[in-house]
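JOB MANIFEST
job_type = single_chain_structure
chain_count = 1
residues = 304
[input]
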Amino acid sequence: MSSRAAPRVAVLKGGLSAEREVSLVSGGACAEALRGEAYEVIEIDAGADLPARLIEAAPDLVFNALHGRWGEDGCVQGLLEWLRIPYTHSGVLASALAMDKDRAKQVFSAAGLPVVESLIADAADVRARHVMAPPYVVKPNNEGSSVGIHIVPEGANAPPVLQEGMPERVMVEAYVPGRELTVTVMGERALAVTDIVTDGWYDYDAKYKPGGSRHVLPAEVPPEVYDACCDVALRAHAALGCRGVSRADFRWDAARGRDGLVILEVNTQPGMTPTSLSPEQAAHCGISFAELCRWIVEDASCGR
């Protein structure tokens, strides 16, 4: 830290990914909260000139509020390591692993965590035929916020019509029926379990539009399932090498009890919008949004 009375925090937001608009909201909310906590805050819309803007701003640390590719996949983290600027959330390796769904699942499986069957396939093959028996889900291997997800129901006669812009290689994952559960990890603490209730799939609109979903907090699930969610979230956070705040997403098939729980992915930079899950879970634990942002800043580091 420098000798300035108020640490200068550069909040990175926006960026170049498909989740740009969400990141702008997350970053703006975090910047406002940090100003209320007496930090000197500079908001930077992360574009191609980001290295020059960081050098010009000379922050004491960076609050990374970027979502999606280039912002939470190790790219920006590597830049900040090169510039020796402490930054929030996970480091280069953990960010890259978590963003690559296939490699993250390999890490989870090696750690003994419950995962669902999946494979990586050419998008052309997925458009041409069923590469897995329905029902299954098709998704980009390295996007977040349910960007580009297609669900192929049981009994589907034709393969999915994938949207334009899908990568050449995609993940095909067996569909898990049941409920969407999520757990925020804050350091070495699992905050709570939320049950996400929607009318359909928990897609981009359900995540970010007001009224798109309903959050039941704490989740009304059997104690052994609640405890298992918290335990698996902590173990996944540790297995990937995450730091700071992360959020683990699950599917739970109630008909199978504890055995029906599988981890889908870990988000190393959870959303910080008004409808986001992690701030909501923190509030449930008595941690205000401003306190959460301050904790994240105080946890910032470089080289670990």
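[summary]
Residues 14 and 20 are 5 Å apart (CA to CA).
The longest strand covers residues 189-197.
exit_status = 0
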